[in-house]
Amino acid sequence: MNYRSVADLNKAIKKWIPTLPHDLDLIVGIPRSGMLVAALIALYLNVPFTDVTGLVEGRILATGRRPLAKPKELNKTFLNILVVDDSVNSGKEMQRVKAILEAARLPHKIYYAAVYVAPEGLQNVDFWYEIVDPPRVFEWNLMHHGIIMHSCVDLDGVLCRDPTQEENDDGPKYEHFLKSVPPLVIPTYPIGWIVTARLEKYRHLTEEWLQRHGIRYNELIMLDLPNMKIRQLLGIHAQFKASVYQSVNAALFIESSRKQAIEICKLAKRPVFCFETGEMFNPNFAEFSYTLWSKFLTEARRDPVKALGKAIRYVKKRMKSYKIKARLFLRGRINAI
């Protein structure tokens, strides 16, 4: 699963800008995700930006008090414009936008660009930053992407916040939490499988809450144990979720806890997105992280001081390796870090 976070997008844009035309007067975002890209590029270049309709109608978005490097007028004969989206897959949306702007017969030089493109979308853009093959998902639209229909999604910590220690009494306070907690996100598409360590005895309250907030789903799978104490004693949250993930053959698991996300990924050998940190864990990384962490904990129990020293040396060694690779990259000796 190819994944890019908001932080990845920002880093990509900063590296991409020097390769774009240097005489851009206006950045145009293709709604909605392209507006995020357009805003960042416009801010870094200190030029105005607008959306596709604004370009056709001759208006730009408000710019605040900061003086702009470029004039605000759109009636300049040779205005250089960059029309940008976050990604291009098949290229249908970019083709639709091109048709709109061509029909408007605007007197401007217009470039078309996207940060991320699939190989089949390359012919639709003048500039791109990175080729990202499907399957791919982006942090900024994951919960409103069609992949949700084929995904397992955790409930507490994703669709709503986790209960506090006081609320989590397996009694009246917890029931009040289940009834009154506000949603964190309401996915656009129906969720394939909501997989939660909530106890089966709370199914009725959970289903009522989901219906009340308009959260659609195919199936709600809960942990069938008598009470919270037994659940805590067994500690099988990740094992339970991983087994469901494998049995339903979902495309992705969206988990709230980073620790559980890594363990689910290791057990299911499938990608897991951590909603809490915005990280995507793929099987190879999860296996490495889990093994490394387990080894560190084992050594820490025997000799904490020695284990800490080894951990510090490991981090220093990795940093040194990255610096060497960076120097080689800058000298042109290798193509990628």
Q: What's this model, at a glance?
A:
The protein is 41% helix and 19% strand.
Protein architecture, described:
By secondary structure, the protein is of the alpha/beta class. It folds into three domains: 2-138, Rossmann fold (3-Layer(aba) Sandwich), CATH 3.40.50.2020; 142-290, Rossmann fold, CATH 3.40.50; 308-337. Helix content is 41%, strand content 19%. The chain contains eleven helices and 13 strands. The protein has helices at 6-16, 33-45, 52-57, 92-104, 172-180, 203-212, 228-234, 237-248, 258-268, 283-302, 304-330; strands spanning 2-4, 26-29, 49-51, 80-88, 109-117, 127-131, 136-138, 151-153, 191-199, 217-223, 252-255, 272-274, 279-281. Helix 5 (172-180) packs parallel to helix 6, helix 8 crosses helix 9 and helix 9 (258-268) packs across helix 10. It is globular and about 70 Å long.
